[in-house]
Design goal:
- The protein has helices at 23-33, 48-55, 67-79, 115-128, 145-148, 178-184; strands spanning 38-42, 59-64, 85-88, 101-106, 129-141, 154-156, 159-161, 172-176, 188-201, 204-217.
- With 218 residues, it is an alpha/beta fold.
- Strands 1, 2, 3, 4, 5, 6, 7, 8, 9 and 10 form a ten-stranded mixed sheet that branches.
- The longest helix has 14 residues, at 115-128.
- It has a single domain, classed as 3-Layer(aba) Sandwich (Rossmann fold).
- The chain starts with 22 loop residues before the first helix and ends with a strand.
Length: 218
């Protein structure tokens, strides 16, 4: 299994990563309606989604391998007067009790692993979720340009090592197709899988595709 590596946030344009993605507005309503309370923001980055969920009244924990990211979140939550438990840690060995969380939110984070690592991360996620608890996550798609055409080195048949200069340099990226997802999440009742093509981002043509997975622990 490849060693986990986080983003080097010091090298990033941080402004886009402090605004919550549109997915969380829907999820906050859905999870509130379901009576869910305890949320883990898995791979929290700078903490934009932890802050959002806490502002909506959820009991939020956050974990990321980047000490910079966790320190950023701690300072941000203090300024917002929010109580968020934020820890530095690795997704393959989560420091939480079994059956502890109602929901796990993992946005563009669990794909930062190789094939063996992905299965460990999902096993850990299953362990810490309550029965019937919900996961919402994303995975890189094998239909993306950077999997088949980028020329980046492959660690295994599913995993590319990013070689672009910037915050993700040398961060592994696992890529999936639908069959991979159904195998990886075999202990979850899958509610929805969306396959989205980001044709244009910031007025630039892209070939960047992701799966978004919503499911419940059996």
């Amino acid at each position: 299994m490849v060693e986990s590596k986080g983003w080097e946030w010091e090298k990033a344009d941080q402004s886009p990563w402090t605004k919550p993605t549109d997915h969380v507005y829907y999820l906050a309503h859905k999870w509130s309606e379901s009576g869910f309370k305890k949320i883990l923001d898995l791979g929290s980055g700078l903490g934009r989604h932890s802050i959002f969920f806490a502002q909506q009244g959820f009991d939020v924990s956050a974990i990321d391998i980047s000490e910079y990211g966790i320190n950023y979140l701690k300072e941000w939550s203090k300024k917002e007067n929010l109580d968020i438990e934020a820890k530095v840690g690795d997704m393959v060995a989560l420091p939480y009790k079994d059956n502890y969380f109602d929901c796990v939110f993992a946005y563009h984070s669990i794909s930062h692993a190789d094939t063996e690592g992905i299965y460990k991360i999902i096993s850990e996620t299953e362990r810490i979720l309550k029965k019937g608890g919900e996961i919402y996550t994303s995975m890189c798609s094998k239909e993306s340009w950077d999997f088949s055409k980028s020329g980046f080195p492959k660690i295994d048949k599913n995993t590319v090592l990013n070689k672009e200069e910037g915050p993700e340099n040398n961060v592994p990226h696992f890529y999936a197709d639908l069959e991979d997802i159904l195998s990886i999440f075999h202990n979850f009742d899958i509610e929805k899988i969306h396959h989205i093509d980001y044709c244009y981002i910031n007025h630039e043509k892209k070939d960047c595709k992701y799966y978004y997975i919503n499911g419940h622990k059996k």
